[in-house]
């Protein structure tokens, strides 16, 4: 397994776990409040900080386990994989943003717009890294 694939695993797992935790926190707070809670800088920054710590720790661990691979630059195949995954995740982000804005135009709810765009960003990033893993694992790119 290449360093880039290991890194993609770390990122995909960290983003998935943090996104689920953040979404669950917003859901619980919204149920307790009886409606959608407004975005909180404290909530978002705390989950961002946890994400950064998990990612840095994960990258350090895989770098220590395979230091030679960590310093090797991406080859042609890996560059192609990054581009293809980025292209796909870009479409997901774009569609998510358009859907979010359309929802806002219809319902006029800025809090929901924020959460929908944040969710689109998280989903696009997760798909990016999962697709990288799939492409690394497949024989055909």
Automatic annotation (TrEMBL):
This protein's UniProt keywords: Membrane, Transmembrane, Transmembrane helix
Keyword Transmembrane helix tagged: yes
Transmembrane parts of this sequence: 7-27, 47-65, 85-106, 112-131
Protein name per Swiss-Prot or TrEMBL: Uncharacterized protein
Organism listed in the record: Marisediminitalea aggregata
């Amino acid at each position: 397994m290449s360093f880039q694939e290991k890194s993609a695993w770390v990122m995909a797992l960290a983003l998935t776990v943090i996104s689920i935790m953040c979404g669950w926190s917003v859901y619980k707070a919204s149920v307790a409040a009886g409606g959608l809670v407004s975005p909180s800088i404290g909530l978002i920054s705390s989950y961002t900080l946890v994400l950064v710590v998990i990612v840095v720790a994960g990258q350090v661990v895989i770098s220590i386990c395979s230091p030679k691979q960590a310093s090797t630059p991406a080859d042609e195949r890996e560059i192609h994989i990054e581009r293809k995954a980025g292209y796909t995740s870009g479409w997901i982000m774009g569609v998510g943003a358009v859907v979010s804005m359309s929802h806002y135009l219809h319902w006029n709810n800025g809090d929901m717009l924020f959460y929908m765009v944040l969710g689109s960003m998280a989903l696009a990033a997760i798909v990016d890294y999962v697709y990288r893993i799939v492409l690394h694992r497949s024989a055909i790119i």
